[in-house]
Amino acid sequence: MKKFSMGTFLIYLFVTLFSIFCFLPMLLTLIVSFSDEMSIMRKGYSFFPEKFSVQAYRLIFQGGSNVMQGYAISTFVTVVGTLLALLITGLAAYTLSNKNVKYRNAMSLYFFVTMVFSAGVVPWYMICRALKLYDNIFALIIPNLLFNPFNMFLIKNFMSSLPDALRESATIDGANDAYIALRIYFPLSLPVMATVGLFYGLAYWNDWWNAIILVDNRNLYPVQFLLLQLKSQIQMIRDLQYLGGITTGPLPSESVKMATAIITIGPIVLLYPYLQKYFVKGLVVGSVKG
Amino acid sequence: MRGGGCLTMQDTKLIRRNGLIKDIRRNKFSYLIILPALIYTFIFSYCSYPYILIAFQKYNYEKGIFGSEWVGLKNFEFFFLSRKAPEVTWNTIYLNFLFIITGTMLAVVIAIMLNELKCRIFVKNTQSIMLFPNYLSWVVVSYMLYSFFSTEHGIINKVIEAFGGNRVNWYIQPNVWPAILVLMRIWKGAGINAVIFLAAITGIDEFIFQAASIDGANRWQQIWHITIPLIMPTVTIMTLLAIGKIMYGDFGMIYALIGDNGVLYPTTDIIDTYVFRALRKIGDPSHAMAISLFQSAVGFLMVYGSNWVTRKFFSEGALY
Amino acid sequence: MKKALLILISAMLALALLAGCITQDTGGQTNRQGSGDDQKQIITCRYVLPGSAPTDIDVVEPMINEAMQKAGVNVELKREYIPWEAWEQKTNMYLSTGEVFDLLNVMNDIIPISSYVSRGALADITDIMNQYGSNILATNPDIMMDAVKVNNRIYGIPAFWVEFSHSPEMTIRLDILRKYNLPVPKNMEELTETFEIVMSKWEGPEKPYIPIIGAQTTKFGLAQKGYDSWPFWVYDNFIYVNQHGMVANYFETEEFKQDCKWARLWYQKGLIHPDVLVFKSDQLNAQLDSGNWFIHAGTIGSIDNIKKNYPDITVDDFAFLNFNPEKPNLRPYGTRNMNAVPKSSKNPEAGVMFINWLYANQENYDLYMYGREGIDYEKTGARTRKVLLKEGQSVPAYFADDWMIGNIKYLRTSETTPTATIEMLYTIDTTAVNSIAASFTYDASDVMAELANVRTEIQASIAPIACGVVDYETELPKALEKLKAAGMDKVINEYKTQFEAFRKK
After folding, report:
1. Residue C401: its chain A contacts at CB < 8 A?
2. B125 class by beta-carbon count within 10 Å (0-12 exposed, 13-18 middle, 19+ buried)
3. In terms of CA atoms, which chain A residue is nearest residue B4?
4. pTM value surpassing 0.90
5. CATH number, position A100
6. Is A246 close to C19, i.e. CB distance below 8 A?
7. Residue A189: inside a domain, yes or no?
8. Per-residue pLDDT tens digits for B183-198
9. Contact A212/C83, CB-based, under 8 Å?
10. DSSP string covering C240-298
11. A29, A105, A142, C296: least CB-packed within 10 angstroms?
């Protein structure tokens, strides 16, 4: 065991300080979401509100079943989407990292072009309509999110960095391409797969755009879209109040903003620790080789 | 021996002469598994590209893309003839350049630091916490930022006053904003980007470290001579991918943090916000497409160039 | 490699074409479903509007349709709400892909109706309006109908929900005047003094700065009505037009100098927030709701929110300051809100028939706008209402927006609306004069680059002068120079030319 050196101490200090800077805003968000709207109005955002209130959460969950159903849709879409996306992306990345494939650079370029050029939402919408990706659960999973070249390049890069000797010795042992991919490369790439899985998961979980453009059926709305609608509705009520309509008192618009942030990130924050185990140090390449 | 095996120079040349069909036959499995991605990209991206042509049209809803009048480069004029074009283009590139450099450096540093620490619980928790800012939207961040920088109740001005200084009206000081934007951006992105490098470090064969350790290398030397060189390919690829988007500013961020505050435009107005404002009351898809085409083309050329250089000098870091 | 590229491109084009064909097919299907095989020949009116649908829309919409059909209007209304976040993108998408719908909400101050028309998006409904729109024509004066005309043809149905002749406007809090024992100010000098006293005596951490969004401010026009040259109007925030037909760069005028003088004075006296340039609309709303204000350059819709901090406030505690009652108000334009019929509509008359039914009588209007009496609202007078809420809900189960499609003749205000607001907004001002440019629309397509630059430059260098953050005398020459370089003169001259041609007609 090594001694606790000055360097280690500085690292602990820096990491701790940076974490505090990252933690405080989130804590503030949480507190504001539980603050009474009037005290937000009077004092602004505060770590020590005059009065706590669950009004924002009550407002969000008063639709009850709606939000829960939204959660179910979002969860389903995220799980299925992420798994499918990981599969497609990982397989493609393997090919691009396979130095025996002569056209891998041409294909990389083919993918890269789509990261830079975009023709906007109109033709995309036409394509989705043509493929019947409209008003069904597939519309939330397939368009836009199923494959992201950025993630593919991450995996490809990781796989390329694995020693060439792996492939060579396996080939000499008589292993075919499929064996090398599934038994050697993918198990060794777990850390980057976990990273990319996290990115895909976040993208699916946070997506409301597909729902806005491609889904009319209210039973298919993911939770992000429902919360967006709620905020939109609060805005509408403001307009109504301008006309002198509603007699409900102040709508908890500030605390709702924060509560929606908390509600949507909750599951992700809880999920991340499970992914972390794939970043455990000490994956020894040699151990898989045998 | 279907999978190919180790190739000599002669083999490579042989394959090159035989072309695509032969290569597919040699690597059936590899080509098969990349097919879904190829098709997906073709359908959802390449099939939509003909629509980019509206950048050269006076697009008319009724006549559509085949009937609209062709106007050449007229849709580009509103931007390129404008006096602001050089300024906003410069701001976009300059800010993105700063974001790429600082963001990557901090993420690498954090990843290496976390990797050095032995206390698992501490690492796990801090790493999770560092992802928090990424989950907050820029709009929420903008409110928090205001509570820092507001002239009357801002925490920063309170500190300045406590030390006997005078209040500063931060929101009319264009020169400090690039720094603030950089800070906010790295604060928000460092945690999630560190995950990428952490994964890259995890992928390094533990055996190399053990060998170095036996040879008497200390931790610092190991970082400098093993970790950093081995994650360099990841760093360059991330950078290359970011360069492709260098003409695309972070609209969500700038719009939320700066908004309509024209005083700060000289240093913070980017192509995206400028074009958004210019077209807001016109609502014409052709003009928007023209600018997006320009941004993409420049980004593509820059990546093409830098990838060429990278391939020359550091082939592991090249994109293709 | 080249061959592969060629194959790729041709395949791409083929597929894109295919995609286009298929989409058109689906469009056709939608329409067939829409028309239906019903024997009564009921036509569908698919109405696309921004926002999100009220929860009970599925209950109230059939009631509306039933009422409509009972009145002999064979239209089936079907509303489609599009969230604000996607409004511009999705409407553009619908118009680009030829999606079949029958009525589109148009907000002239976001994208003007002329812009839609020049891109071939909207149907000319002049003849339909004459055939089916008798109630629409009866409830909208000429100036409103002019607002929906392009090249003298009707392209929209105006929503005349508010009287626009109320500027320059200022609401003052009478309860605060009473609290500090101050008289109602009679001119700008008195107002400034009064405001200073209120500011100095104010209790609590949030000072009652005048609520304005600095970055969007180019005219601090509270005193404008007192100028000798009144009435005049500043269009698009920088084009000055007076009733003699003079067109000018507003920032070069004497009126702007006067406005800036007041703004600077107020800023220096601490009546304008030091961070006024960063203020966003929701911060402004929050300030108005909190009641931490004394005067407001606008109107107040409801006293509900203020009541939380000021429990004793009543609807009569607000007054509209008018320092020059002898001068008429100016009506700068007809209306900014309207609904239009897209060219893709198979039943272009459906929208007109529906809105014509809506404006037929109070009963129809109440049903569409406020929902079910006794469930969603309660009548509290001939022109007032009270919103009813279901147990535990803070959002009414059904409501529609007056500002999108309403009419001032039928609109109901609530008992929490200040009387000053009702007088100002929801009562037709008979003495007001119409601006000579009220029905003129400016086609800026030839000066787009300049206009974009001018707008940016205004936000960057004029806004700080206009809200008094920096000094007029020292900063204006620099700002004017920048505006000139940005192409201000070209924009103004283009406006002048078009406007003169318009007046000759």
Report:
1. 236, 239-240
2. middle
3. A100
4. no
5. 1.10.3720.10
6. no
7. yes
8. 999 999 999 999 999 8
9. yes
10. EEETT--EEEGGGSHHHHHHHHHHHHHHHTT-S-TTGGG--HHHHHHHHHHT--SEESS
11. A105
